[in-house]
Amino acid sequence: MLNPGLVLYEEDSKLIDKELQKLNQLSRSKVSFLVDKDGQLISCVGETNGIDTTSLASLTAGNIAATGGMAKLLGEKEFSILFHEGEKDNIHISLVGQRAILVVIFDERSSLGLIRLRVKRSVSALTEVFDRVTKKMDKINSEEDGDSPLTEITEDDIENLFS
Amino acid sequence: MSFINYSSREISCKIVYYGPGLCGKTTNLQHIYKKISPDSKGKMISLATETERTLFFDFLPLALGSVKGFKVRFHLYTVPGQIFYDASRKLILRGVDGVIFVADSQVERMEANLESVDNLVKNLKEHDFNLEDLPYVIQYNKRDLGNVVPLKEMEEALNPRKVPYFEAVAPKGEGVFETLKDVAKMVIMELKKKS
């Protein structure tokens, strides 16, 4: 049985962007972004110029997956927060429910204490959004609604992408 | 696991190249990276050892264009082929939408191919996936070498499900895009079926 993919509608996407913007501003961070646990970038705000957010998203998911593997080996459920300290920039990574990862990049304009405080609040707001998204997806899957961009895609459309 | 974002109008899918050590998974990605236009690809990330063996994964994001107003993105991953990196292989299969099994056609690597298929089935089960339910194609790589197993024998040994297969010489690019294109089609059609 395949896991259902993540489907994000405009209204939830806006709520996520708004929460990330608030977090980025209040925590005085450089960049805040949300990644799906499989490595897909969901949303990104802040000073993103010059940052390869797609690669960062994939590596973040790999990082969380590897840390989750270590937690299992130690009999822990998970390690919910990771922190990487650099010379100029630091990365704070935390889990949002079972589905997403919140990443905050910050420098000397902020502090780890402030980041932890603000991230904690945002994680709880984002968890609520994701609970709603999951419920919405369950409802759509059970109704077999046909409102997907995929319903009209043909094999030729995919063939054309490669030509 | 696919991701459909109605706000940015994007569909993203994850395709994993699986296979025994040194079968050519990274070479497949390197060829794709070389040939795809700069507008359609992101950076290729390789988490490799000093001797250029894959340590965790290679990653190549492709954004090939739009279909019905949605940008279609494929995220290509390879797994480390060496036996002792099994924990990493398992992690990379998380949320996979389609698998390309790269088999090494050399006679002396048949045992490794068989072990790797078994390992794929076992690791997918840990994520509650069945290989039978997943878009899956096989690539018989290194067909230009002298000591290769005949195609019929490889098919009998590695492809009981009779999924699409492709002969390839990855360093020359032969069969590389054909394999990717086929699994990409299967992935999108599978998503369409579920939607």
Explain how this protein is built.
- The complex is a heterodimer of chains A (163) and B (195).
- By secondary structure, chain A is of the alpha+beta class.
- Helix content of chain A is 47%, strand content 21%.
- Chain A is built from 4 helices and 6 strands, in the order βαββαβββαα.
- The radius of gyration of chain A is 18 Å and the shape is globular.
- The model of chain B has no long low-confidence stretch (mean pLDDT 95).
- In chain B, strands 1, 2, 3, 4, 5, 6, 7 and 8 form an 8-stranded mixed beta sheet that branches.
- The chains are: A alpha+beta (163), B alpha/beta (195).
- At the A-B interface, strand 1, helix 1, helix 2 and helix 4 of A face strand 1, strand 2, strand 4, strand 5 and helix 2 of B.
- Strand 1 of chain A pairs parallel with strand 1 of chain B.
User: What CATH architecture of chain B do you see?
Assistant: 3-Layer(aba) Sandwich
The largest contact between protein chains, plus residue counts on each side, is: A-B, 42 and 54 residues
Tell me the number of structural domains of chain B: 1
Helix segment tally of chain A = 4
Helical content class of chain B: 25-40%
- Helix/strand/pairing category of chain A: alpha+beta
Please name the CATH topology of chain A.
Beta-Lactamase
Shape of chain B: globular
State the helical fraction of chain A: 40-55%
Mean pLDDT of chain B: 95
Through-space gap between termini of chain B? 14 Å
The CATH architecture category of chain A equals: 2-Layer Sandwich
- Report the sheet with the most strands of chain A, covering strand number, pairing sense and barrel closure: 5 strands, antiparallel
Order of helices and strands of chain A: EHEEHEEEHH
